[in-house]
Design goal:
Distance between the termini: 105 Å
Oligomer: single chain
CATH architecture of one domain: 3-Layer(aba) Sandwich
Radius of gyration: 34 Å
Structural class: alpha/beta
CATH class of one domain: Alpha Beta
Shape: globular
């Protein structure tokens, strides 16, 4: 009996040894991230932490920004648990060097960092760096480099904007008085109160109260790790590669959410451009603008031909507010020569070969619209295609269908509505229109039976055209004005002009039936018979109610 405790002890030790040597599932890796406030890339909101939950990590709503969402996507691929260590950017870099954190994001690749830290091959963003001043500071103009000598420029130590500005200053021999701040928030606060003349920062966020004085070279933005952990860098690279492959539009979607791919700023000009603008304003002569007559809802005149409407009308109104310029609008009757009597063309396709053929320079793209195919349900592959003559869209349609080697005949018409009517009447099997026109016409009862579908990868991009024989400074002024219109403002303009509430025409006369008007007789007869019965029923109900009231 005495041997039983010994046996039990031996079995216990043996069982424990087996358990210790058994393979276990990999523990979830805890990734320590150096986190600093640099909106809109990385933000931290301690005020959003619920009472009594101060020590908890990764609370919903506490973190936000481009880097945060990208890092969360990476962590899901590798099953990382993220732990954020808060501080300034310099504190985060010091902690990365000492091994207190594993990763720091939102950084550019500069020589001093490459000596100390490790970068993956793949970046997560590309951004330009610029000198930024207050919009109301009249001392400085864009690219007026002579006025920049000796100005106080704020910057955050250890950041890519500081490196870029210092390099730019040396290359252009423009001495700057650099003033250092611990955070970008302190940087912008100092600019707003006038402690500095300008600041150095990436051009990734909206700047409604600031203006860009100079734009410098763009650089890739990375997540950066420690050189002692090459496995982490490889895992970062693998995850970013996987995201780019499986979700090719992921970076663009994040940019649309947090950043602006085309940074807008306060309206600012160089001295030469401002001098030319002042001359135009002093002359008090309106610039001639070639404006489309019937391209609804992008550009069109009212029936009287006296007033312009549409997206481009509102854009030119905004340009006038920003610049003080006056515009006189002339009908774009000759599409082959839209600049014959004009300095500016209100809406042109963003196609440089098209611009050269029409003697115009093209601004940046103002907006893009998808292209739809409209067809009779049974004739989507009809050989007859209705196109609006002398337009770039017609040219692109012809080129596109030629690549498919389809037997096609073209019916050339004057307006988009003519093309829609041709499909409705069966004279053509299909036509191609932009999505804004599509929404307008398909709200009309006479076209409601037509079949529509978007054409994948087929877009119409709109720019403003400037006549080549005009002063080059006019082109710069219009481009700067367009740049000053914020994305939200542009979206409001487009939404205003593309939200249609077209009343549906339910009259019998609107039906495409030759004998439709004969249906009016039985319809009216039915209406009067039904009314007579309704009146009789009402009288009987009233009589019954009277009888019940006397009981």
């Amino acid at each position: 009996m005495r041997q039983y405790p010994t046996i039990l002890y031996t079995l216990s030790v043996l069982l424990l040894s087996i358990l210790l040597w058994m393979p276990t599932a990999d523990a979830q890796r805890v990734l320590r991230v150096g986190w600093y406030d640099y909106s809109p890339l990385s933000s931290y909101h301690p005020e959003m932490i619920p009472e009594g939950m101060d020590g908890q990590e990764d609370l919903p709503g506490v973190h936000s920004g481009y880097n945060y969402e990208y890092l969360r996507m990476i962590s899901q691929i590798h099953d990382w648990q993220l732990k954020f260590i808060y501080g300034t950017i310099q504190e985060s870099l010091d902690r990365l060097q000492s091994g207190e954190v594993d990763l720091v994001g939102g950084v550019g690749k500069i020589p001093s960092r490459e000596e100390l830290f490790a970068f993956p091959t793949n970046s997560v963003l590309r951004a330009s760096v610029g000198l930024i001043a207050r919009a109301d500071d009249s001392r400085f103009s864009m690219n007026d480099f002579t006025s920049f000598h000796g100005i106080r420029v704020g910057a955050v130590p250890g950041t890519n904007p500081l490196f870029q500005v210092e390099q730019w200053s040396r290359q252009r021999n423009i001495p700057l008085d650099i003033v250092y701040f611990n955070s970008f928030q302190e940087l912008y606060d100092a600019l707003d109160v006038g402690s500095i003349d300008a600041l150095a920062d990436s051009l990734i966020a909206p700047m409604p109260n600031h203006k860009i004085l100079a734009s410098m070279a763009s650089q890739d933005i990375y997540f950066m790790g420690n050189k002692h952990d090459p496995q982490l860098i490889q895992e970062l690279d693998d995850a970013i590669t996987q995201i780019q492959y499986l979700q090719p539009g992921y970076q663009e979607a994040l940019s649309a959410k947090y950043l602006y791919t085309q940074t807008y700023s306060g309206f600012t000009l160089s001295k030469r451009e401002q001098a030319y603008l002042d001359q135009l304003l002093a002359d008090d002569q309106p610039l001639q603008v070639s404006f489309g007559t019937d391209c609804f809802p992008i550009e069109y005149f009212d029936p009287s031909g006296s007033t312009i409407h549409g997206i481009m009308a509102d854009i030119f109104e905004r340009i006038s507010q920003l610049t003080g310029l006056k515009f006189q609008y002339v009908p774009k009757n000759d599409l082959n020569d839209p600049t014959a009597q004009a300095d500016i063309v209100a809406a042109m396709n963003t196609d440089f070969s098209w611009g050269d053929r029409h003697n115009t320079y093209l601004t940046q793209s103002v907006f893009q619209v998808p292209i739809f195919m409209v067809s009779l349900p049974e004739q989507g592959k009809s050989a007859v295609v209705a196109v609006r003559q002398d337009t770039q869209l017609a040219e692109k349609v012809i080129q596109r269908l030629a690549q498919k080697d389809e037997p096609v005949r073209y019916l050339y018409l004057n307006t988009t509505e003519d093309c829609m009517n041709a499909v409705r009447d069966g004279r053509a099997g299909r036509t191609y229109i932009n999505s804004y026109e599509h929404n307008y016409y398909m709200n009309q009862n006479k076209f409601s039976h037509l079949k529509t579908q978007p054409v994948p990868g087929f877009f119409k991009s709109i720019s403003i055209g400037i006549a080549k024989d005009s002063d080059p400074r006019l082109f710069a002024i219009i481009c700067q004005a367009l740049r000053s219109i914020s994305p939200s403002e542009m979206n409001s303009i487009i939404l205003k002009n593309t939200t249609f509430n077209t009343p549906v025409d339910c009259s019998i006369s609107s039906m495409r039936i030759p004998w439709a008007h004969w249906l009016r007789v039985p319809c009216f007869a039915y209406y009067w018979v039904e009314s007579a019965f309704s009146i009789t029923a009402i009288k009987r109900t009233a009589a019954c109610a009277k009888n019940w009231s006397t009981l």
